[in-house]
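Hey, can you fold this?
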Amino acid sequence: MAPNHLISEKSPYLIQHAQNPVDWYPWCEEAFEKADTDNKPIFLSVGYAACHWCHVMEKESFEDEEAAGYLNDTFICIKVDREERPDIDSVYMAACQMLTGRGGWPLTVLLTPDKKPFFAATYIPKNSRFGRPGLIDICKQIKSLWEKDRDKISDSAAQISSHLGKAFDFQWTGEIIDESILKTAYEELESSFDEEHGGFGSAPKFPTPHRMLFLLRYYHRTGEEKAMIMVRKTLKTMRLGGIWDHVGFGFHRYSTDKVWLLPHFEKMLYDQALLAIAYLEAYQITQDSFYAKTADDIFTYVLRDMTSDTGGFFTAEDADSEGEEGKFYVWSTHEFNAILGAERGKLWQRFMNLNSQGNFSDEATGKKTRSNILHLTRSFSEWAEKLEMEETDLADRWEKTRETLFHIRKKRTPPLKDDKILTDWNGLMIAALAMGSRILGNYSYIEAAKRSAAFIQRRLTDETGALLHRFRDEESGIQANANDYAFYILGLIELFRATFEPEYIQRAIDLQEQMLGNFWDHENSGFYLTSKTAEQLPARPKELYDGAIPSANSIAFSNLLLLSRLTGNTRWEKYAEEMVSAFAGSINQQLSAFSYFLCGLEFVVGKKHEVVIAGETTSPDTEKMLSVLDNKYAPNMVVFLKNSQNEKQLIEIAPFTAPIKPVADKTTAYVCTDFACGSPTTDPKELASMIEKTKD
């Protein structure tokens, strides 16, 4: 069978479909011109490589000759990788939610040749069943309507498109956001908190690490113990549960049940980055090594399995292998005994909750699978106490066992790796690794972060200095979106915090200027997802809701506040203030859905600290000063190191640092809190005391 039009694409997801009998096109003008010439509607299918139900629909319908025949006869078929084109996904997902009240992937949308939607759904079975229309029946109905009652479709498409822009309409309402809404947001989260299993709501459960970041800030400012309890419970139960890969490390996408046992097994780069940040901040505030170890293990997974030779980080790993979801990750008791021996196998079966019938049921049939997902119901510290042994001894024994299992598992057929490199998700991982390097003291993490940043500068930046979105197979392409700018700027800010190399903050400033010039909504404020020079779609998306990842607006809001403090330029803060006014009405409707934006508001209402250390990088006294700051949880603190190497550049970026210098040739710390500066100190203990006294 000859391949279809996807054969020359770079996306692994699109290439997966290149041999389908469906005559797929990528999103391109050729496809729409053909639809117009052949007088056919468009069948738009949006998904991503690690999506389980995308694979189900492909196997059931797109690989099926009969279903493909109906699709080819009725439509011009277009396949889109949502990770490559989040703008297309955003617009047509909004249409799906408008028409059906829900969304998800695979996303299926029927369009007129002028890109206007008139029907939307998610997964569609090949044949109708249980009242759910099947793909073949839909093809028959649309073909008949298109030929006999085109006006009905055209009128519907025009009406839907006229309302589509409202999905991204954040009008000024005059509402006010102040400190009181942070308490209300906390109360919303508390009301949905699962006291027994951690997390929020019931099944399915998503990690939503940005909720943890908000709760940590809220606890830090208010001392509300329940906020900390929610964070600790959730981070602990996720790490013990089946959503965590106990053999190879890293978090799966989400849990299908409320107890964190049965995940959808795909692993996404953004989850690793955001969860690492949450565990790092939890470690800072608690000094509990459990959180530090989890962050370390996440980084081990990313640097081992998700890092390219060029320094960029890959996008995802699939849920399926050999046509079966999770097959790579699960174990039978027979395997355990064969690998570890009967006695050792029995011990770890008990710890990791394996049994001969399997510890989970098939999601569709409800039958026991005879396979097991490794998970803990007690932490190693709790097991050690129960068994009256040292926790380190128990952990060492498990590590040897884990390594044995890991090497055996490597012989299995692995899930597909989506090895494209995305600027936005790399920005998040750069931020996480930069934080990890200074909080955990691991220099290899900052080296990995710097390599990724260098890769983006080298291969994902065009000749004008503008960002590109995707790199794969030696090809860079796709115009960057607001996520690329916001997430990468965050990474650069964290790189500066970890290295104090001014070029990182200068690059962040340059990109923030580009973002304002190309994405800012001059009428209603906030950032559009697409550049002003991007392809025109039925609506220009503007996202605020913090879903699986925070929105570009939420992260940009915090970036603007930080850049204002780092440069002393209040212009950045004025843009942030406009965003609060513009989005107040939407945020007030469901506060907990905007948790990363609320992290920025915590920065606004809390005490803010600027600390400048004047001293040489190699000085032991400088290291002691910085160690004091790195060990403190202080999310509203910006830090500078001024030394002989960066002094000139730093003064250009942050002119207020010009008069700052060491006292008596000793490393000296200058601390300012809420626009008031204290006396300089050369004593690390006094610095620690000053930070503690100015705690929110």
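Oh, and this one too while you're at it.
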Amino acid sequence: MNKNIIKISALLITILIPLFTISQINEKSAITSFENKKYKKAIRLFLDLSKQNGQSIMYNYYIGKSYLKLDANRDRAISYLEYVAQRETSHKPNVFFYLGIAYFHSHDFATSIAYLNRYIKEANDINMKKNASKYIEQCLNAQALTKSPLDIKFINLGRKINSRFAEVTPFVSDDEKTLVFSSNRKKDFNIFTSHKRKSSENWSRAKSVGRDINTYNDELVAGYSASGHKLLIHNSEFSSIEDIKISKKIHSKYRQATSIGKYINTMHKEEGATYSKNNDTLFFASNKPGGFGGLDLYYSIKLPNGKWAVPINMGSEINTMYDENYPRFSNDGGLFFFSSKGHNSMGGYDIFTTQWNSLRNEWEKPQNFGFPINNTYDNTNICFANNKRYAYISTIRNSGLGGLDIYKIVFNNEEPENLIYRGTISVAHQTEAKPIKEIDTDISITVINKQNNEVYGIYAYNKTNGSYVISFIPGNFELIIKGKSYITYRKIIKINEKQTDLKQRIFNIYLQQK
């Protein structure tokens, strides 16, 4: 009997020791993944460990912190961090700080503020307390901004542009025919481009701009000229040199990028950049010494010899002790857009707008662009096409394909562009079409707006040649043509926002005789 017990015990030890060793290896691997900033892998490994070994305060703590490091879905950290907070643990009071951030991203700003205040009361780390106070300030900003959301519509550009990775810094040419952006779909951030054919409203599948631009470093779009012929580039903060470079398009291809000049680029970081409307001034971001803190915005005037002059700081009305980045002008040059972590930001970078006051000879106080253009994540740039109704941004939304996606924004309070339907009305007759004047010209043309079932318009047509013209705004419509001699003609017409880029569509109509 004793021998059997000894044998069973030995067998159990033989089985359990490898399992314990595997568990240790997985735990070490999970912690290493977190320390190496591979947060998605860390989450997966810690979740596996939880399944193997049951709930653990340490596992939940790491899972929660890992979610807060991702580009999106940071509110998923809440349940894991709450598990930690509800138990006596050495992770207090830090867990209160992280819960404050998690609730901030869930838009539960009251709970976020409560946890952040609890952290400030119980913690000793001065720098972390300052961060907590900054988050509280952002919560208060967010509470105010979310009460008055912008009347806008988001259109995801789809799988030809977006991926499960991050797509950032989108810029379009004035004619809205060329799009450039950056993506880390190939591990490092590279620059991609997409085009619209003349007869199409859809973007082509995004392609790399080529090896002349993309290298083993991270490349991001810093800015873009209105014509699309000049591409401004900067490397990421993890690169050894973070300068602004310029690439010119020659025969539809962007050529090797070169430095924009010694007075612009320094031994410090230079990032977002743009030209003034007439291209005689360059605006850019730099964290070189002498600014107000972090990245500041500067401007440099082009000299008669074509080089850029010594840059001048844009001043305290624009710059704060935090980062300012990605300057951009509206198409008419009247508005100046930029991103900032200061002013009344509701979380990380927010997009702001201002304009030059020529009477006071200074910039107006920057205004937050508003929610939901700005949210609790970083919102770095906005690029308008040659129309106030449409703009392009990179942002995080539940409808995204993964992390940061590029969206076309529709400002519903701006007048939409019309899509013109034109063509001829004829009568189908055996194998050919007869002009309507040969049968019966007594018809009525009505368009119904299907969104409210009201008459959108009643239209005339040319009885001599049968031609007609109807102007549509985006929406759903039913075209109805009636006449005593004809079977009633009905056609559902759906006009998407992006279809109005076409301006005009030829659509010939064939009526059937009774």
